[in-house]
Design the sequence.
C-alpha cells in the first residue's frame, strides 16, 4: 500500500448524517436501562400518559443516590418512573411510600398527566414453605403465585388496586443475582404496564358496541330497501347509505390506532409472561395464567370490535357499489332510449329531406321554366317568334337537368370525408 493510499484512508471520513443515524440505531440496542440491585427492597413503578398525549423527549436515564435508584423511560405513548428503595432487613409490613403520585409526575417531567398504572414490588428473601401466613400478613386476598426463573424466585399478587391506586406484588428471591433480579423485576413491571396500556382500547370497544348494533340494523334496513326501491327513486336511499358509511368510517378512524396499539401491547405481555419461565406453585393459580385469563378476553373484545368495524365498512361500501351499479344501469338505459329516439328522429328527417328534395326539383324546374317562358315572351314582343313545341320540349329537358344536378350534388357531399 502506497503512502498516498494510506493518506486517503486516514483523511476519508463517513458522512455525518449516516454516522449519526447508525449511532442512533446502535443506541436503541442499549435503551431501556435496568436497575440492578440485591437484597430486600421496595420497588415502585408508575406509568403516566402526558396530558396532551404526546411524548416529546425519548431520553432515558438512571440516577442513583445512596440506597435509592430512579429509572426514567420514555415510550411512544407513555413515560415510566421506576424507583428502587433498598431496605435494611426483611419486613413483615408493607413499606409505606415516601413519595406521592404528584412527586413521581415531577420526576417524569410531566404536568397533570394521566395515570396508567402504579405497581409496587416488595423484594424479600427466599420464600417460606407455607405462603399463606405471609400473604395474610401483607393483606393479600385471592392470590396467584408462580415459581419463576427456573426456580430461582417466586412471585405472588392478588392484583387488587389499593386506596393509593397501586397494586402490590411480592417477589421472593432464592438465588437471583443483582443483574437477573433487576431484569426479572423489569419483566413483571412490563407485564403490568403493557397490560394496562392494552386495556385502554376496552372503553372504546364498549362505547362502540351499541353504535355498531345500530349500524347493523340500519345496514339491514337499507339493504332490504335497496331490493324494493325503484332505481329512479334512488336519491334518498343513496343519501342514507352515504351517511351510514360516513359514520362507520369516522368510528374506524377514531379507534384504528387504539385497537392497533392494543394488539401490539398484548403481544408484548404474552412475550414477557413467557420470559418468566413459570412453573406451578402448589395450591395457587399461576401468575401468568391469572393475567392471561382475565386479560385476553378484553383484548379479543377489542380485536372483535375492530374486525366488526372493518366488516361493516366493507358491507356498506358493497351496498353503495350495488346501488351505484343500479343507478348506472338505469342511466345507460335512459341514454340508450334517448339515442334510439334520436335515431328515429334522424330517420324521419331523412324521409322528410327526401320528400323535400322531390319538391325542390319540381320548384327549381318550375322556376327555370318560368324564366324560359319570360324569355320567350320577351323575344316574341321584340319580333323573334318561337313555336310552342320548343317550350314543350324544354320541360323534360329542364327537369332532367335539375334532377341530374341535384343527384351530383348529393353524391359530392357523400364523397366528402
Sequence:
Amino acid at each position: 500500500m502506497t503512502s498516498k493510499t494510506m493518506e486517503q484512508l486516514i483523511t476519508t471520513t463517513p458522512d455525518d448524517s449516516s454516522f449519526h443515524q447508525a449511532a442512533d440505531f446502535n443506541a436503541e440496542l442499549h435503551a431501556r436501562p435496568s436497575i440492578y440491585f440485591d437484597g430486600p427492597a421496595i420497588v415502585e413503578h408508575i406509568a403516566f400518559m402526558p396530558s396532551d398525549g404526546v411524548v416529546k423527549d425519548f431520553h432515558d436515564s438512571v440516577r442513583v443516590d445512596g440506597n435509592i435508584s430512579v429509572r426514567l423511560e420514555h415510550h411512544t405513548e407513555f413515560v415510566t418512573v421506576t424507583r428502587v428503595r433498598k431496605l435494611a432487613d426483611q419486613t413483615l409490613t408493607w413499606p409505606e411510600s415516601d413519595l406521592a403520585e404528584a412527586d413521581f409526575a415531577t420526576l417524569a417531567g410531566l404536568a397533570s398527566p394521566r395515570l396508567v398504572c402504579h405497581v409496587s414490588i416488595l423484594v424479600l428473601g427466599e420464600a417460606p414453605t407455607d405462603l399463606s401466613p405471609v400473604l395474610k400478613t401483607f393483606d393479600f386476598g385471592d392470590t396467584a403465585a408462580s415459581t419463576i426463573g427456573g426456580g430461582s424466585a417466586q412471585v405472588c399478587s392478588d392484583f387488587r388496586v389499593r386506596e393509593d391506586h397501586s397494586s402490590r406484588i411480592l417477589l421472593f428471591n432464592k438465588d437471583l443475582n443483582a443483574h437477573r433480579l433487576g431484569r426479572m423485576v423489569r419483566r413483571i413491571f412490563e407485564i403490568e404496564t403493557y397490560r394496562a396500556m392494552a386495556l385502554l382500547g376496552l372503553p372504546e370497544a364498549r362505547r362502540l358496541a351499541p353504535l355498531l348494533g345500530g349500524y347493523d340494523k340500519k345496514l339491514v334496513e337499507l339493504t332490504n330497501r335497496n331490493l324494493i326501491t325503484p332505481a329512479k327513486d334512488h336519491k334518498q336511499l343513496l343519501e342514507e347509505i352515504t351517511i351510514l358509511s360516513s359514520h362507520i368510517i369516522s368510528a374506524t378512524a377514531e379507534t384504528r390506532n387504539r385497537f392497533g396499539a392494543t394488539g401490539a401491547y398484548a403481544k408484548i405481555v404474552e412475550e414477557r409472561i413467557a420470559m418468566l419461565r413459570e412453573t406451578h406453585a402448589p395450591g395457587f393459580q399461576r401468575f401468568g395464567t391469572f393475567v392471561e385469563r382475565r386479560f385476553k378476553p378484553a383484548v379479543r373484545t377489542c380485536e372483535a370490535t375492530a374486525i366488526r368495524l372493518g366488516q361493516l365498512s366493507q358491507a356498506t361500501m358493497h351496498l353503495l357499489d350495488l346501488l351505484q351499479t343500479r343507478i348506472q344501469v338505469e342511466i345507460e338505459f335512459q341514454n340508450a332510449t334517448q339515442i334510439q329516439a334520436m335515431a328515429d328522429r334522424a330517420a324521419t328527417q331523412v324521409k322528410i329531406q327526401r320528400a323535400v328534395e322531390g319538391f325542390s326539383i319540381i320548384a327549381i324546374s318550375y322556376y327555370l321554366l318560368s324564366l324560359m317562358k319570360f324569355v320567350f315572351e320577351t323575344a316574341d314582343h321584340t319580333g323573334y317568334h318561337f313555336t310552342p313545341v320548343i317550350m314543350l320540349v324544354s320541360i323534360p329537358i329542364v327537369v332532367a337537368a335539375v334532377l341530374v344536378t341535384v343527384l351530383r350534388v348529393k353524391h359530392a357531399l357523400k364523397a366528402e370525408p
About this structure: The longest helix spans residues 287-381. The domain at 201-337 is CATH 1.20.58 (Methane Monooxygenase Hydroxylase; Chain G, domain 1).
